[in-house]
Design brief:
There is one protein chain. This protein is of the alpha/beta class. It is about 25% helix and about 20% strand. It folds into two domains: about 190 residues, FAD/NAD(P)-binding domain (3-Layer(bba) Sandwich); about 210 residues, no CATH class. It has nine helices and 23 strands. Helix 4 links the parallel strand 13 and strand 14. The mean pLDDT is about 95.
């Protein structure tokens, strides 16, 4: 039997809950479907995970975070924040429901949403899931010896989860850099395959860098201002909210015992081939950080904002480089018994029949509104602005989509 409802919202993370909040305000009948629980993707983070955005940027609709504005919520605190937000307005939510397909309804009006708990006929569908859907592994990861433990960063929880011995972390975006830091602090011998990701100073000119990004309006940058659509999918700059927040300077870790390597270019049993790009990637990380600081400096001047000059620990003047950059790595010789793939995620919206996508398989839309009547997206990275997928910015897009649904 098919259940009828005006609007189906798929996903109960910050995007789905924010959309539900505004739909309820607009008086639109709707139902939120979630295959697991509120904040499911946050629950999959490692034990010591923290946000890299300060608590002041946790700003769901009419529900600002009440904790220290300069602190950083941990994994369980983020989940609790979402649950507490939901409790303020009681969204019409069904958990344990997995959506498998969205099809145009046979009548020609609206959509059929197919789930493992039955089908729904609705006029509108809001897809409120991120682009971080499926863990991505190198094609030849299966060539590693079977006795080497392999985990994607999504499945990593803590150092005790790993066998004794050294650990190789592949990827130096936010997850890879933070997991490397945790393993280093736990006293493990760590090897880090450095990717093309930028570095962001935790503090700059007397304030958290994200404070400046927010105050100076950088998070309001539109997707149309990017030089290329491909920029939407670049690795996030590495920085940490752990221990009150800190910069992750890969050169410092290299000087203090972490073995930095180039990109993993091939796998043949326990032997990895490494690209000759380590120095270039370290230089790129610093270049991106300097560019960010220069942009902030220019905006401060343009907007008449005064701030102290950078402190000694707010300058990127570390020129350390490794004595040599190996082109091969034997896991057995290095005593590496575990590999953590911090290699990102892939996404796929082909389960939505007829959805129009670009060359990256990313849905065509304008601030969440597609050309297909009744089909919407909220919570995608760079949906409309730099802040679109963040706890800080998702509400703006959710309000826009809810208003569009109510008006049509």
């Amino acid at each position: 039997m098919t259940e009828r409802v005006n609007t189906i919202v798929i996903g109960a993370g910050q995007a789905g809950l924010s959309t539900s909040y505004y739909l309820k305000q607009q008086g639109v009948e709707h139902l939120v479907l979630e295959k697991e629980a509120i904040g499911a993707s946050w629950r999959q983070r490692w034990d010591s995970f923290t946000l890299v955005t300060p608590n002041a940027m946790c700003n769901l609709p009419n529900f600002a975070c009440q904790k220290d504005p300069d602190g950083f919520l941990g994994r369980d605190e983020v989940v609790r924040y979402l649950e507490d937000f939901a409790a303020t307005f009681a969204p019409p939510l069904r958990t344990g429901v997995c959506v498998t397909a969205v099809l145009p309804h046979s009548s020609g009006a609206g959509y059929t949403v197919i789930t493992d708990q039955g089908d729904f006929h609705c006029q509108n569908v809001v897809v409120a899931i991120s682009i971080f859907q499926r863990p991505r592994f190198p094609a030849d990861a299966g060539k590693l010896p079977p006795d080497v433990v392999q985990l994607h960063s999504q499945d990593y929880r803590n150092p005790a989860q790993l066998p004794a011995g050294a650990v190789l972390v592949v990827g130096s975006g936010q997850s890879g850099a933070q997991i490397m830091d945790e393993l280093f602090l736990a006293g493990r011998q760590v090897y880090l395959s450095v990717s093309r990701a930028g570095n962001a100073l935790r503090r700059y000119r007397g304030q958290d860098t994200f404070h400046w990004l927010r105050q100076l309006g950088i998070f309001e940058m539109s997707v149309h201002e990017l030089d290329s659509p491909a920029e939407r999918f670049e690795a996030h700059n590495h920085v940490s909210g752990r221990d009150g927040g800190k910069t992750i300077n890969l050169r410092w870790y290299g000087r203090n015992g972490v073995t930095l390597l180039g990109k993993v270019a091939g796998i043949n049993g326990d032997c990895l081939t490494l690209a000759d790009d380590l120095i270039a990637n370290l230089n790129l990380a610093d270049k991106i950080s300097r560019q960010l600081c220069t942009m902030l400096d220019k905006q401060m001047v343009a907007q008449g904002v005064t701030a102290p000059p950078p402190a000694a620990d707010e300058r990127l003047d570390d020129a350390w480089e490794p004595a040599h950059t190996p082109r091969e790595l034997s896991l057995n010789a290095a005593g590496i018994n575990a590999v953590i793939w911090a290699t990102g995620y892939s996404f796929d919206f082909s389960w939505i029949q007829g959805v129009a996508v670009d060359e990256f398989a990313y849905p065509h839309q304008q601030q969440g509104v597609t050309a297909q009547p009744g089909l919407y997206f909220v919570g995608l990275h760079w949906l409309n602005k730099f802040k679109s997928a963040l706890l800080y910015g998702v509400a703006e897009d959710a309000a826009h989509v809810a208003a569009h649904i109510a008006a049509h």
